[in-house]
């Protein structure tokens, strides 16, 4: 991809396709420890994002991410809509009017996104939420950048770490969101939001190649 606005929009479209493909899986994960709507929520949101991009594609990476944010906030209820919405909004604000998403800008956007999720949801590592995918993803992205990785390599490292982070939630007792109502009974189940975060990062990494 080019890391200009068209490339970022293509990555968002790829993410929407991955969400649609994994809708049932995310519903199943959320059915086990929540209310079973996570896949539906995200699919509705990303379908609306694609429609918004089709109607008018913004001409900066930050503009694309802002459109994602405002669409997710308005179309996705529950916990995940505002959390992902805030992540994309903070990332877009960080990018400002930058025309091209290079590695330093990508790291800034990832950091801002994670900060947004934590500011909004107050979850820390180990609470069995999407934060358990996103924190290791950011660390791995930073390390890949230090090692000289390009945008695709940085996103691939982030996605690999997010997969492991999502896997780690299986053993955790949830302390935030609906799953926390189950306490110990939620152990043995992967957090749906951690899984969706890993899927989004994998889609972005694939689009960047
Ligand atoms: P709801 O739980 O309102 O139905 P979703 O099912 O769409 O919303 O999203 C659930 C996901 O949201 C969880 O799997 C978890 O990853 C994430 N989540 C919930 N609360 C928080 C929080 N306070 N901080 C971070 N992530 C959270
Ligand atoms: Mg739910
Ligand atoms: Mg719900």
Automatic annotation (TrEMBL):
InterPro entries per record: DhaK_L_YcgS (IPR012737), DhaL_dom (IPR004007), DhaL_dom_sf (IPR036117), Dihydroxyacetone_Kinase (IPR050861)
Name assigned to this protein: Dihydroxyacetone kinase subunit DhaL
GO molecular function: kinase activity
UniProt-listed Pfam families: Dak2
DhaL domain: residues covered: 6-206
Keywords: Kinase, Transferase
Keyword Transferase appears in the UniProt entry: yes
Superkingdom, natural source: Bacteria
Species lineage: Bacteria, Bacillati, Actinomycetota, Actinomycetes, Pseudonocardiales
Designated gene of the protein: dhaL
């Amino acid at each position: 991809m080019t890391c200009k606005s068209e490339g970022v929009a293509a990555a968002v479209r790829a993410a929407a396709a991955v969400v649609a493909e994994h809708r049932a899986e995310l519903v199943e994960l959320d059915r086990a420890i929540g209310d079973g709507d996570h896949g539906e929520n995200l699919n509705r949101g990303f379908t609306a994002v694609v429609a918004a991009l089709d109607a008018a594609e913004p001409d900066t990476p930050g503009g694309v991410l802002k459109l994602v944010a405002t669409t997710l906030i308005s179309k996705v209820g529950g916990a995940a809509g505002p959390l992902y919405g805030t992540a994309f909004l903070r990332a877009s604000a960080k990018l400002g009017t930058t025309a091209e998403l290079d590695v330093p800008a990508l790291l800034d956007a990832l950091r801002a996104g994670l900060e947004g999720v934590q500011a909004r949801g107050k979850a820390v590592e180990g609470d069995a939420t999407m934060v358990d995918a996103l924190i290791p993803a950011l660390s791995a992205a930073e390390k890949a950048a230090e090692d000289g990785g390009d945008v695709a390599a940085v996103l691939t490292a982030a996605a690999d770490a997010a997969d492991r982070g999502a896997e780690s939630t299986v053993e955790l007792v949830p302390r935030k969101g609906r799953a926390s109502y189950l306490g110990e009974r939620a152990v043995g189940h992967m957090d749906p939001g951690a899984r969706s975060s890993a899927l989004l990062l994998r889609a972005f990494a694939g689009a960047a190649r």
